[in-house]
Amino acid sequence: MGFNCIESDLFEKIPKQNFDIIIFNPPYLPEDVREPKDSRTATTGGKKGNEIILNFLKQAKNYLSENGKIFLITSSLAEEIDFKKLEYNAKEIGCEKLFFEQLCVLELNL
Predict the structure, then answer these.
(1) pLDDT per residue as tens digits for the range 4-14
(2) pLDDT value of position 90
(3) How confident is residue 73, by pLDDT bands cut at 50, 70 and 90?
(4) Would you tell me how many other CB atoms lie within 10 Å of the CB of residue 24?
(5) What separation in angstroms does the CA of 97 have from each of 46, 47, 73, 82, 101?
(6) What is the edge-to-edge ordering of all strands in the sheet holding 19-24?
(7) Are the beta carbons of 60 and 11 closer than 8 angstroms?
(8) Class of the CATH domain delimited by 19-109
(9) Is 0.85 topped by the overall pTM?
């Protein structure tokens, strides 16, 4: 069994279909004006750090199968997300404490 990989700005180039698993490794840090502009695209998730994730989660509902799961990374530096308000159940899979933050992998479903 294989899988397809598509590079896209969120769901912009994704054909309308339902997926059983969606993996998202977003930029998740709050904006830091001291960071070089060329690296911000890979690290900055908006002023609060969670804006790209919020936009992704609003769109992802239209692409997730009935029993589908989303796996994504979040940072303790970003503003917390109210997953219930977005109609997701969230379960922490694992966390890792790094120098200045804690990264967590979450499993989400509707």
Answers:
(1) 788 889 999 99
(2) 98
(3) very high
(4) 17
(5) 22, 22, 13, 22, 6
(6) 19-24, 64-75, 102-109, 89-97
(7) yes
(8) alpha beta
(9) yes
